């Protein structure tokens, strides 16, 4: 099987150390297997996007020595494709319209977990509705778990009918990522453990749409001293223009133990060493590791 991996950042700000970990791990796993590495910009949420961030992300990747295959895909240009797939899911009764608000949900169940109300009470008017994936009760034990290449056996159970299209008129991440992974023939996904709980939803959608299921691997995310994931929301520091120390720090974080003399090398030599010596079984099977620059 041809290995095709990807890195898919959202343009909500500059890349930081947590972003570098995901980019580096996915890049090394692809290149170590003589595979392709694609870049996709997941610009589905305009209110959260920062002007110029997409260009800055690509420049940062180039500055760190990453080279990608083919053209960069932008999800904002693929809305017609997502809409066609949504209509197919609705036609096949694998998705339905929902006009429930969070307040209504809390009043009915006292929880934020969706109670599947609109399955049996379809809205008379679909304008302003969300669209949810119909998740049937789990009956096949084979589908109850999936094997993550780093984290081991993980539950694959979906606890609710999840959103595919938001009430504010934007396509949801779960739908777009599954469709684009299939179109780009992604065979292996290496990403942060903060997305581990999204995997059961994506597996559910892949089954509903009869799509291939990639191999998943979730690396630990970098956390600050308060235990929060490094992100734009927690004011993670942007990557600077000195790739060598940051690449070495990322390799150590990922358990690859680069030799100390690489500190006197350039980014090309570091990446060449890392591709040759990449061992995914050395990546810690943890969800979060505290990291200080």
Structural account:
With 293 residues, the chain is of the alpha/beta class. The chain has two domains: 4-77 and 177-201 and 209-290, 3-Layer(aba) Sandwich (Rossmann fold); 80-165, 3-Layer(aba) Sandwich (Rossmann fold). Helices cover 32% and strands 16% of the residues. It contains nine helices and twelve strands. The strands form five sheets. A three-stranded parallel β-sheet has the order 1-2-3, covered by helices on one side. Helix 1 packs across helix 8 (243-253) and helix 8 packs parallel to helix 9. The protein is globular, with a radius of gyration of 20 Å.
What's the name of the CATH homologous superfamily of the largest domain?
Answer: HUPs
Strand arrangement across the biggest beta sheet = 1-2-3
Task: Output the helix-strand order.
Answer: EHEHEHEHHEEEEHEHEEHHE
Low-confidence stretches: none
Oligomer: single chain
Q: Tell me the total number of β-strands.
A: 12
Give the CATH topology of the largest domain: Rossmann fold
According to CATH, what is the class of the largest domain? Alpha Beta
Tally of helical segments: 9
Question: What descriptors fit this protein?
Answer:
9 helices, 3-stranded parallel beta sheet, 3-stranded antiparallel beta sheet, globular, alpha/beta, 2 domains, Rossmann fold, 293 residues
């Amino acid at each position: 099987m041809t290995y095709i991996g990807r890195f898919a950042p959202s343009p909500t700000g500059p890349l930081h150390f947590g972003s570098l970990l995901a980019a580096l791990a996915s890049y090394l796993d692809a290149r170590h297997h003589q595979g392709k590495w694609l870049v996709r910009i997941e610009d589905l949420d305009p209110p959260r996007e920062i002007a110029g961030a997409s260009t800055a992300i690509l420049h940062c990747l180039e500055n760190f020595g990453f080279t990608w295959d083919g053209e960069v895909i932008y999800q904002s240009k693929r809305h017609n494709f997502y809409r066609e797939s949504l209509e197919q899911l609705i036609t096949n009764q694998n998705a339905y319209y929902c006009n429930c608000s969070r307040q209504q949900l809390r009043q009915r169940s006292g929880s934020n977990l969706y109670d599947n109300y609109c399955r049996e009470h379809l809205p008379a008017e679909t304008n302003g509705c969300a669209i949810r994936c119909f998740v049937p009760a789990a009956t096949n034990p084979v589908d109850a778990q999936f094997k993550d290449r780093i984290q081991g056996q993980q539950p694959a159970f979906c606890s609710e009918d999840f959103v595919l299209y938001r009430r504010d008129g934007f396509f949801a991440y779960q739908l777009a990522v599954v469709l684009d992974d299939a179109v780009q023939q992604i065979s292996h996904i290496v990403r942060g453990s903060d997305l581990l709980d999204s995997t059961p939803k994506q597996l559910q959608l892949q089954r509903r749409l009869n799509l291939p299921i990639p191999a998943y691997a979730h690396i630990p995310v970098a956390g600050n001293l308060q235990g929060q994931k490094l992100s734009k929301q927690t004011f993670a520091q942007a990557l600077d223009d000195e790739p060598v120390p940051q690449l070495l720090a990322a390799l150590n974080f990922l358990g690859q133990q680069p030799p100390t003399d690489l500190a006197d090398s350039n980014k090309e030599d570091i990446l060449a060493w890392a591709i040759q010596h990449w061992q995914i079984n050395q990546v810690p099977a943890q969800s979060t590791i505290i990291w200080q620059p």
